[in-house]
Design a protein that fits this description.
It is a single chain. The chain is α/β, with parallel strands linked by helices and 449 residues long. The chain is 35% helix and 24% strand. The protein has helices at residues 2-14, 25-36, 44-59, 115-120, 149-158, 194-206, 256-276, 297-308, 339-352, 371-374, 389-394, 407-426, 437-446; strands at 66-84, 87-88, 92-93, 100-109, 129-133, 163-167, 189-192, 209-231, 236-246, 282-289, 315-320, 329-331, 359-361, 380-384. β1 (66-84) and β2 (87-88) form a beta hairpin. Mean pLDDT is 94; it is low at 1-14. The structure holds zinc ion. Residues 246, 258-259, 292, 322-323 line the site of zinc ion (ZN).
Length: 449
């Protein structure tokens, strides 16, 4: 029996999965989205998702799976009506917006809702409801930086607006958090589809109009849990690599792309490594984060925990998967990394996943669970997904459902991720080093952090 098991393990190790059909990320994505559905942080469904991940990782043979709990203010959507000049407009509240609002105020066009717009008319939004484009309008000078959703909400509040209506960048009503990490936004914030919002802009240009904004939401104190499983290293066991992705989602859909498929990839790679009997040189931590959508609460809690326990110096790399569907490019996140390492990796990935473009880019994107580590100088690897306009439009919207993904796309994410993770775990020398002191300060400056 023992020799049979040994032989089976050797065979498995010799033949790691190379076909999309060999992988299970699609199955896990389907189970997560159909058995649980939306996974809001701190909610009942969120807890179910945490339990789901815990049980799956255990079932793959990890006896060290554990939860890391952190406090959150859970937010639950209630009712909302938005009217402009008495006419109803379809809208959705952003996460973290206040429990109640009953506003009847003038709606004023604040352009992009950036610092420039408020500097040009500092009193225009005061006491009114600001109408703001969520992206950058076509006539915006190239020097203007695009502000994030929560920055636009915070700026409107800072300039005294009583509420804000964001105009989406496409026809889906895509929400997101009105704050970054704070429990509650200062003002009610809603989003409307692009064409509806542009009509409102035209309407305001012709004549002033009032908006009626009524919302009810529920906010309550709760907790959420990251789920962590560890695959111990061998000769470099004291060097740790995180392979992470967020498990939570928004509530308008089942968050299939953002980020059930990513969380499933983390679980699937953990599964495959156990099944292959793979023994990495470095220790790999598989981390499923909660609270990403509310401002990376889980990853900040995890990084702070490492720091508090004195374990941060062990962490040498963070590999994040979030909307990394069917990856085509390695994103080195602005770190000064060894190109040769990634070129060699691109070749081996290309052999296992025909059609892989193997592009190497190095541009951090704002937000995401890599942020707490990046800010502490830990090098980041991110895989850029092969995303269509439909995928982008469905992020945080009612269409982020399983039917916008295919099994091959999801399972390809496992193939590429597993190879990249093995390359990092087994490298003689990692392609980028942890930054500290002046080098970290220079990195932050270069990347606007
Ligand atoms: Zn995400």
């Amino acid at each position: 029996m023992r020799s049979f098991l040994l032989l089976a393990a050797l065979l498995a190790a010799a033949a790691p999965e190379t076909r999309a059909d060999d992988w299970r990320a699609w199955d896990i994505t389907r189970d997560l989205t159909s058995q649980i559905g939306p996974r809001m942080t701190g909610s009942r469904k969120g807890k179910q998702a945490e339990d789901f991940a815990f049980r799956r990782l255990k079932s793959f043979g990890y006896d060290n799976v554990h939860f890391e709990s952190f406090p959150v203010t859970a937010w639950e959507r209630g009712s909302l009506t938005l009217t402009v000049a008495g006419q109803p407009v379809a809208a959705a509240a952003l996460g973290g917006t206040p429990a109640r609002a009953d506003l009847d105020r003038p709606l004023v066009d604040m352009g992009n809702g950036g610092p420039e717009d408020y500097a040009a008319a500092p009193d225009k939004a005061r006491g009114n409801i600001a109408l703001v484009y969520a992206g950058l309008l076509p006539d915006t000078p190239a020097s203007v930086r695009r502000q994030g959703r929560w920055e636009k909400v915070a700026l409107a509040a800072q300039y005294g607006a009583a509420g804000i209506v964001l105009i989406g960048t496409d026809e889906t009503i895509a929400i997101g958090s009105a704050t970054k990490g704070e429990a509650r936004a200062a003002i009610p914030a809603v989003v409307v589809a692009k064409s509806d919002g542009m009509k409102l802009k035209a309407q305001l240009a012709a004549r002033p109009a009032k908006a009626g904004l009524r919302m009810r939401n529920r906010l309550y104190a709760g907790a959420a849990r990251n789920v962590v499983a560890t695959l111990p290293g061998t000769d470099l066991a004291d060097e740790h690599i995180i392979f992470g992705g967020h498990l939570d989602s928004w509530d308008l859909a089942t968050g299939a792309l953002d980020n059930a498929a990513g969380a499933a990839t983390v679980m699937d790679v953990a599964r495959a490594f156990k099944a292959q009997g793979y023994r990495p040189r470095r220790t790999i931590q598989f981390v499923l984060y909660m609270g990403e959508e509310e401002g990376m609460l889980g990853s900040h809690a995890h990084a702070a925990g490492l720091e508090a326990r004195g374990e941060l110096p062990k962490l040498k790399y963070m590999f994040n998967t979030d909307m990394s569907l069917d990856p085509m490019a390695f994103n080195l996140w602005g770190f000064d990394a060894d190109q040769g390492f990634y070129e060699a990796l691109a070749k081996s990935v290309g052999a296992a996943r025909p059609g892989f473009q193997g592009k190497i880019i190095s541009r951090p994107m704002p937000g995401g669970d890599s942020e707490p580590y990046q800010l502490r100088g830990v090098p980041i690897l991110y895989l850029n997904g092969d995303l269509t306009a439909q995928h982008h439009g469905c992020q945080h919207a009612a269409c982020d459902r399983l039917d916008i993904l295919t099994p091959a796309q999801v399972n390809n994410t496992s193939i590429v991720s597993a190879l990249a993770l093995k390359a990092l775990a087994d490298a003689d020398r990692l392609p980028a080093q942890v930054l500290s002191g002046e080098a970290l300060a220079a990195y932050k400056k270069a990347n606007g952090l």
